[in-house]
Specification:
347 residues, mainly alpha, hpI Integrase, Chain A, 2 domains, three-stranded antiparallel β-sheet, elongated, Tyrosine_recombinase_XerCD
Length: 347
């Protein structure tokens, strides 16, 4: 009789073959990932599921359990619907395929829809097998059997105080592109515009006397946004110094050097923001539990102007949403809207 080990990180080992298999439990330290995988595998084994199926399920579940432990710092039985949304967001939009050849060839490739559904079904099975209610509540709130292909907003909305700290950190850095980064971040904050809308701006789209910018969305629809007087002053002081080209069709945020103008990439700004936030966390200036990225500026701005008295309808126009229900999906804004009881008490 031979010993069959499913994986060296798992606690349970199987002995023998066929119906006479027995379980050998070895005493090894159990981290949260192994613990929950161990519990699930034990339940599945008791249901008569064959070893190869359990092994496959365990390897897939390890991705989910690792995310719970390393990113959320929670155990699966404590996850909220928002936590589960974060995992599926990560799975669909962040995690790359395991195949290294695909990674090298297509950097933007994501897992297939078939693979996504396998993960979804298995996580659902995990909660059902262990009689946990977390996933039922998640599906109820999503109102769909398969998680929709719309991106949730798992990141924290940045506050004006945090934003100012980030700008100060960049200003005091020795980065050769700090002026360009500050201008881009300030314009994103002032306008509430999307990153893609800002980096596509050309000189012909900008009025640097009045601080007006004509930005276009993916449907090429134009809307005019404004920046603060302080941001406008910075543009007029520094833009001509940092850009090599200033023709009407040249981008206002340019890659330095080269024989012709090129707009900067969104990835560059994303990395610059992430790096700055990490430095501030290391210095203890921003709390470690704050999930702040470049995409935090847009919902953060929505909250800022909402708290300042701007109506949801005007915020919809500011953000360029066709449907006001899209604006209402910004969780921090919803949390600040009065419920019916509070509204009734104020009548």
């Amino acid at each position: 009789m031979s010993k069959k080990v499913l994986k060296n990180t798992f606690k349970i080992e199987f002995l023998g073959n066929g119906s006479n298999d027995k379980i050998y439990a070895e005493k090894i330290p159990m981290n949260p990932i192994n613990k929950w995988n161990d519990i699930y595998r034990s339940e599945r084994l008791g249901s008569g599921i064959n070893h190869s199926t359990i092994q496959n399920e365990s390897s897939i579940l390890a991705v989910f359990l690792s995310f719970c432990d390393e990113e959320l710092h929670k155990e699966p039985n404590t996850l909220t619907s928002a936590d589960l949304k974060k995992f599926f967001y990560y799975l669909r939009y962040v995690r790359k395929p395991n195949n290294s050849k695909i990674k090298n060839k297509l950097q933007n490739e994501r897992i297939s829809e078939k693979a996504f559904k396998i993960y979804y079904t298995l996580v659902k099975k995990f909660y059902a097998t262990l009689n946990l209610e977390n996933f039922k509540q998640f599906e109820k709130e999503c109102q769909t059997p398969i998680f929709r292909k719309t991106r949730p907003n798992p990141h924290d909305a940045i506050t004006s105080e945090e934003f100012n700290k980030i700008i100060n950190e960049i200003e005091n850095s020795d980065s050769s592109t700090k002026i360009r980064n500050i201008l881009a971040f300030r314009l994103l904050w002032d306008t509430g515009a999307r990153i893609s809308e800002i980096i596509k701006l050309r000189y012909k789209d900008c009025d640097f006397e009045k601080g007006r910018f004509n930005i276009s969305n993916t449907n090429r629809e134009i809307r005019t946004v404004v920046c603060s007087k302080e941001t406008l002053k910075l543009f007029n002081q520094h833009l001509s110094k940092i850009n090599d080209f200033s023709n009407p069709d040249d981008p206002i945020f340019q890659v330095s050097g080269g024989e012709k103008s090129r707009q900067i990439s969104s990835n560059y700004l994303i990395k610059a923001m992430t790096k700055t936030v990490q430095k501030l966390k290391e210095k203890g200036i921003i709390e470690n539990n704050r999930d702040l990225v470049l995409y935090s500026l847009r919902p953060g701005r929505a909250v800022e102007v909402f708290d300042g008295g701007l109506s949801i309808a005007h915020i919809q126009q500011l953000l360029g949403h066709h449907d006001i229900r899209t604006t209402m999906k910004y969780n921090p804004v919803i949390e600040r809207c009065p419920d019916l009881d509070n509204l009734q008490n104020n009548l």
